[in-house]
């Protein structure tokens, strides 16, 4: 099980407004509040998520830069069914983006940083910022919405 490939959602909270440099994307003003990031881990969810939880690391993905400041409040994973694992490589980007589209379809979800985590796909962003009023249990709300997701 150590290397189960799959998709994940990271739910984060930023305590105060912060200007953050996101690698080559540039500098962006991140308002305090709730965020989520949609990602995939072909090499295994466990290793990737352990890396995301680690504070000190080489900054590589866009999310690494945000996680220097934002606090992870929840993580939900979507392990690939076994039938998918053998042939998942060409499918993975589409699955990740399909999940992401559902997330971005939430009425409170906003694209704050175009291109964040989506350099290799056509999504506007893999980072969602949630407008005020989503509430502290926002990960439950979003997760409830993506429960309809099927591989
Ligand atoms: Zn995408």
Number of helices in the DSSP assignment: 5
User: Structural class, from secondary structure content?
Assistant: alpha+beta
Strand fraction: 25-35%
Average pLDDT works out at: 89
- In order across it, which strands form the biggest sheet? 5-1-4-7-6
Number of domains: 1
User: What is the element string, with H for helices and E for strands?
Assistant: EEEEHHEHHEEH
Bound ligands, each once: zinc ion
Globular, elongated, flat, extended or rod-shaped: what is the shape? globular
Q: What gap, in angstroms, lies between the N and C termini?
A: 19 Å
Spans with pLDDT under 50 lasting ≥5 residues?
Answer: none
- Helical fraction: 25-40%
According to DSSP, the number of beta strands is 7
Give Rg in angstroms.
15 Å
Largest sheet data: 5 strands, antiparallel
Explain what the structure shows:
The structure is a single chain. By secondary structure, the protein is α+β, with helices and mostly antiparallel strands. It has one domain (6-146). It is built from 5 helices and 7 strands, in the order ββββααβααββα. The protein has helices at 45-53, 62-66, 82-85, 88-104, 138-146; strands at 6-14, 18-22, 26-30, 33-41, 71-79, 109-110, 127-130. The strands form 2 sheets. Strands 5-1-4-7-6 form a 5-stranded antiparallel β-sheet. It is globular, with a radius of gyration of 15 Å. The mean pLDDT is 89. Zinc ion is lined by residues 96-97, 100, 118, 121, 123, 126.
